[in-house]
Queue: 4 jobs
Job 1
Amino acid sequence: MGLPVAVITDTEELDPGPAVRLLTEAGFEARVVGSRDPEAIAAAAHDADALIVGYARIDAALLDRMPRVRMLATMSAGHDMIDTAEARRRGLWVANLPHAATEDVAVHALAQALALTRRLPQADAVLRSGGWSTDFAELPRRAGELTLGLLGMGRIARTLARIAAPVFGRVVAHDPHAADWPDGVGRVDLDTLVADSDILSLHIPSTPATRGMIDGPLLDRMRPGSLLVNVSRGDLVDPGALLAALDSGRLAGAALDVFPVEPPAADDPLRHHPRLLLSPHSAFLSDASQRAYVTEPARNVIAWWTTGSPLTPVVTPAAARTEGAPA
C-alpha cells in the first residue's frame, strides 16, 4: 500500500510550501495543483485521500472523479466552496479554519468603519487636490455618537464588538442562531438592526437564504447617511441596489473587501464609485495569518489521518469511515 495522498488545489497568493512540508513529514504524498480548474484538480487528485481547498468549487461532479477522497479541509473559515450537503451524503469529513484570521478581519472591519466615519478617503482626496479642511463636502462624524450594528455574531463579529465598544456609542447585533452573546452588545431583531445602525457591518455566511440579502428594500430601511461594511461574502450584497443607495444618498458610503465576482472587472462600477472604500479581499491577510492559512488545513488532514477526526470539523460523517486509515 502506497503513501496516503493529500492534494492542495489553489492557494492564490499563499505559499503552499509549509503545508507540503508538514504533510510530507507526516507520511503523505503531497501534491499542489495551483488552480481552481476542475479538470486540473481531477487529474491531480484522482487517487487522493484528502483535499485542501482554497477557492476551488468542490461539487458532486468533481467528487465523482475523486472516489478515494474522504477528507476536505478548507483554507478559510468559510466553506461555501464545498457542497457540504453532498459531502455529508457521501460520508466525507469537512473541516474549516475558524481562527486563523479572526483578529485580522475584525480589525480590518473596524478600520473600514472608522475610515468611512472620519471620511478619510475624502480627506486624502481634498489634500491631494490642493484643498484644506475647509473644503470638506461633508464633515466627519463623531464615532462616540454612532451605533455600530453587526449582522451575525460569530467569532469575527464578537471580536469586532469587543474592540469597537470603547469607540462607538452603542453596539447592537442580530443573529437568531447565536448562543454565545457578549456582554454590552444589544440583541435586536433584523428590522431594528437595520433601522438603528449608523454603520452596518456584515458577518454572516453565504447561503441560499443570505445571498442577495442586502437588497434595495433593506437598504431603503437604513438611516439616511448610514454606512455599510462587508468583509464577509461578496454575494450578500446586491451590487445594483448598493450603487443606487450610494447615488441617492441613502448610504453616505460603503466599504467592501469582498465582491460578487473576484476580482471585479476593470469596468465594474464598484471599482469606480467615489463613495466606495475598497480593499482586494485582503481583510484576512497578515504575516501571521499567511502562515496559518496553509499550515492549519494540513494539520486538520494529519489529525484526521492519525486520530480519525480533524481538529475543526464542520461536517462529521454519521459513521466515521475507517477506509484507508492507518492500522
Job 2
Amino acid sequence: MSATPPDASAAPPAKTIMIDGRNLDLERGTGVATYARNLSYCIRDLGYRVGVLYGNKPSAKMSPAMKEIAFFDTYQPRISPLTQAWKDVLNWGRARIGFSATQVPMSGLVIADSFASRLPYFDAIHNSPDLFRVSHANFSRSAPLRRVQFEAPPDLMHWTYPLPLHARGIPNVYTLHDLVPLRLPHTTLDNKRRYFRLVSAICERADHIVTVSESSKADIIQLFGVSPSRVTNTYQSVYVPEAYLNRPAEAVARELEGIFGLEYRKYYLFWGSIEPKKNIGRMIEAYLSSGVPTPLVIVGAQAWKSEHELKLLEDLQTGTGRRNNIIRLNYVPFALLMTLIAGARAALFPSLYEGFGLPVLEAMQLGTPVITSNAASLPEVAGDACVMVNPYETRAIARAIAMVDGDEALRDELATRGLRQGALFSPEAHAGRLKNIYDKLLK
C-alpha cells in the first residue's frame, strides 16, 4: 500500500522568530519589557510562530511536569558560599562551550492566571538555566558573544536588549534602544568600558540592528561606525486594550476616588523608574515652585541613584505618602496605571534622554495632555501634540506646569492633537517596518 503523497498546494509551515525573555521575567514592568511583550504580538500578527527564550530555573534533566512547575516557581533557595563557588566554576565552563536551551512544556498544569499581564504571546517557551546572569558574568574581551543552541532551532533570533549572546547558524537581530550609558554616563551604574565593548561586538556581529528613533539611530551610526543600511528605526508602538481606551469618564472617576482618593482631571502624573535620566529631582522642584494646587502623583520604584532624585521630597516630608500635595506610589498594576493615566490633568515626563519615550505615547493614546522635554527622541514622539521644555531648566518646567494648569482650552487642544499623533505609532506601522527586516533576512 503506497503512502499518500503530500498536498503540493498546502502552505509551508510558518517560520519561527524567537525573542529573549531577559526583561519579561521581571516582577515589575520596564519599558524594555513592554517593548518585548508588544513585539511578541507583532511577530504573531505578521504570521510567524513566536518562541521566547528565558533564563529561569527549569533544566533539561527535569521531567516535563517539573519543567513547567519550575518555570513559574518564584521561590529562591539559599545557597551556601561553597556551593555557589562550585556553580560559578561550572557556569564558566558552560559559557566557554556555549549554552543549550530546551523547550518548557506549557500543558496548563500550572494555573498561570497571575502572570497573564507579564507573559508575552508565545507558541513555544525555551529555557537555559540562569542564562542571562551567567553570560554577563562571563563576558570577556576575547569571547564577547556566547553561543546559544536550541533543541528546536528558530529561523531567526531577535534580541530585545544588548546581551552578550548570539544564536548560531541563523540570522541575529539586536534591538539597541538607546546609548544612554555612553551619552549620559553619569546617569547609570554600568561599567562604561564593558558596555562599549559589548555594543561594539553586537554592532560587528549582528545581521541587523533595530532601534526605536532617529535620534538613537544617529547615535549608533556615529559612535560605532555602523553602516546606515544595517540599522533600521522601527519606532515603537504600545498596545492599550480597547477596554481602557473607551472607558466612560464617570467610570474612571469612580475608580480614582475609590482607590486613590483622587479627583478626575485634578492631579498630574509621572510614571517610570526613579533614576537620574528621568529628571525626577528637577520635576519635583519645578512642580513645587509652580505654585499650582493640583496634586502630583509619582508612580515608580526607586532604581539606581534614586536617593539624589528624591532628596528634596524626602527633606520636605517624612516617609512615603502624601505631603506638599505629592503622592508617591512604588507600584500599581497595569489596569490601575491605565486608570491613573486616563484620569490625569496632564502627564509630566521631562526626561533628559530617551530612546523612544513610551509614557508619552501611552498618555497621548489615552487622551491625556503631556508636558515633556525637547531632548533626544522625545520631539519625534511628541510632534506638535505636547508642551516641550528644556529638561535642564527647572523654571521652564515650572512655567509649563502653571500654563497647562490654568488653561482648560489648551488641555483640550493637546488631548485632541495627542490622539492624532499617537495614531502615527500604531501597531500596524510598527509591524510593517519589522516585516521589511524579517523578509530580507529570512529569504
Job 3
Amino acid sequence: MVIRILNGKDVAGAVRYNEQKVEQGQAERIQIANYPNNEIAQKYPQFRLQLLEQYARLNPGIQKPSVHLAIAFHPTEVLRADQLKVIGEKVMSETGFGKQPYLMYQHHDTQHPHIHIVTVAVDANGNKISDKFIKNRLQKIRRRLETNYELVQAERTLLSQEPRRVGEGAEVDLQSTRQTVADKVKKILDTYSFGSVNSFKKYLGSEGITMNTKAGRSQSGITYQHINPEGANNRPVKASRLASRPTQARLTDLFSNQADRHKRECKTVETLLRKRLATYQTLTEPEYRQSLRQIGIKILEIEGAYLYINDRARVVVHETELDKGYSRQELMKHFSMETERKPIGKPESVSQNNQMADSQTQTTINRTGTQKRQVIRLNGLAIAPIDTTGAKEDTEKKTNKSKVQNQTKGQTEKPIAEEQLQGPMKKNQKKNKQRKIRLM
C-alpha cells in the first residue's frame, strides 16, 4: 500500500478532478463524511464544495488549505468498496482529519485499486490541523494498516519506488513529455482566443499543464510543466524549446492582435448568459452549468473563479472580462437548492376588453382637414372604424324628442289656432295698459 498527500491552495480543483472522473465513468463517490446533512451533500454538488470552502475561509492565514490524499494498493489485491471505506476512515482518523468533512472516491482508471480523499486543513473553529512530520506519520500508519488488514507491503513491491506515484508504473520519458506539452499548448492556441496571458495560464491548468512565469535579474521567461493532482511528474520545459515558442512576448503580441474580436465575443457571452438566466425563477449551480452546455458554453472553476469556454465561437473568457454579476462569487449568492423555470405566459383571450386594452389608437385627419377619424391598430393591423356620425345625430334627436314627450305627458293639449293667436293678444293687452296710464 502507498499513501500520498498533496496540499494545495484550491479546494475546488481537487474536488473538480474527482467529480470529473465520476462524470466520465472512471470513478465513483463511495463516502461523504461529517457533513451537517450527508444526504443533501450526496444530492447537491454545490453543497459538497461550499462547505469545504467555508472551512478553508475560516483561517485566511493558511495558504494551502486543500488536502488531497491518495491511497493505492497492489494490483493483485481485490478490495470491495466497503473495505476501502474502512481503510480510508482509518487513515483520516490517524492523521487527525477524522472529524473533518471529507469526500472519498474509488477510481477505476488504473490496474491497481486506489482511492482519493479530499478535505481541508482547517477545522470548524478556524484552527489549523497539524501536519508536522506528516510523511513519517503516514509511513507508520501504512505499515500498521498493512499488518492489520494483511495487505501487500509496499517495501516489497515496485509501488514504493521513487519517483513513481499513484497511478503510474514508471517515470515518464522527458522527450515524450516535452512533445506532449508542445502538442497541447499549440493545439490550445490554435483553437481558442484569449483575453490575457493570465486566462491562458488558467485554462492550461485545466488541461493538466502548469505555466510558470519567472522574472528577475538572474532569469526570466516562461516554463511549461505537465502535472496531475498528486504533483508534477516531469521537469519543466522552457517556452523557447517548444515548437510554437509560446514565450511571454509572443503570447502578449498574439492576444493583443485578437483584442477587438475577443471583446466582441465577451459581449456575446454576456448576452447568452443574461438570456439564459432570465428563463429561470430559481436555479442551482449544476443546472446553471448544464443549461449553458446546451448552448455550447462550458464552465470551469479555477481558483474560485469561473472560466467560460464558448466552443462555438472558440473563445475562452475569464469572469473578470464580463460584468461583475456573472462572477462565481456573485452568482453563488443567488443560486438555490432547487431549479424552477419561469412560467410561460398564457395566450390572451379574444374578448373585446382585451382587444381594446392591447390596441393602440392613432388619430388621422380626413380629406377635408376639419374632421378627425380614429384608426385602431390591433396586432399590427390598421382598422378604420365605420363612420357613425350620422347615426349618432339621429340618435341624439330621438333622445331629445323622447325627453320633451316625457315632460309634456299628462298636460291638456291646446288647439293649434289658439297657440298661434296667443302671442299677438298679449302684445295688444300690454299696449292698452300703457295708454290708460298716459290718460290718467
Job 4
Amino acid sequence: MIRSMTGFGEAERETEAGTLRVEIRTVNHRHLSVNFRTPASLAKWEPQMREWLRTQLSRGHVNCAVRLEPSGAAGAAAIGLALDEERVRAYLSLFGELRTRFGVGGEPDLASLLRFNDVIVRDDDGARAEVPVDDLRAVVEDAARATTSMREDEGRRLAADLDGRISAIETALDAIAELAPSRLAAERDRLRQAVRELAGGVAVSEDRLAQEIAYLAERWDINEELVRFRSHDELFRELMAANPEEPVGKRLSFLVQEMHREANTIGSKANHAGIAHRVVAIKEEVERLREQVENVE
C-alpha cells in the first residue's frame, strides 16, 4: 500500500536532563529534506538524527522539532542559562547609591532587575546534565514511527481515490474501444457517397476505394494506444499495492506522464465526437491523478 508524504508524529521520554519531546511534520518533496529545530546542547546530534529519520522516511520535506524541558533546580543550567550574580550585585549597589545620594524613594524589586536583559545570560560552558544519545535516538525513532503510521493512513485514503480515477479511465477506454470500429464504417459509406456524387454515374473502382479505407484505418488505428494505456493502468495498480517500504511516487508520476501522452495520441486520431469527449474526460482524470501522485512517497 502506498504512503502519503503528509504526516505528523510526536513522542517524549523522561531523561536525566529532563523531558525530551520530538515533533515531526512532513509534506511532499521530490527528495528527503530535513529541517531541524533543536536546543543548542543537542545541535551536535543533527547529522545522526537525519540518518535515524532516513531509515523510516524516504521522501518528503521533514520539519523535526526537538525540545528539552528540564525539571527541578537544575532546570536553568540544563538549557544553558545562568544568573550573572556579580552584575545583579552591581545593580543593587547602584540602586542603593541612587537612593542615598539623590534621595530617591522605593526599593528595587524583581521587576526592576528583569528590565536589564543581561541579568540572565547564556551559560553554554556551564555544567549541566547531558541527554543520553540512546534516549534521543529512541524518541526520534518513536516520533518517526508515529509519522509513518499517519502517512500510511493517508496513503490508504489516497489509494482509494487513485483507484477510483483509474477505474473511471478504464471505463472511458472501454467506451472508446467500442466506438472506434464504427468510425471506419461510417467513413467508408461517406467516401462512397461522395465519390458517387462526384463521378456522376461513372463506375468507381472498389479496389481504389478499399485502398483509401485501408489508409484511413492505419492512420486512425488506436489499438496500440489502448493496449499501452491499459498496461499503464495495470502497472499503476500493482505499484499501489506494493510493499510500503518501497517508495513508488516517482514511478507513479512517470506513469501518469505516459498516460497523458497516450491520451493526446488517441485524441489526435479520434475523428469522432464521442471518442473526443471521452478523451477529454480521461485527461481530466489524468490531471487529478497527477495532482494526487505528487503527495505519494
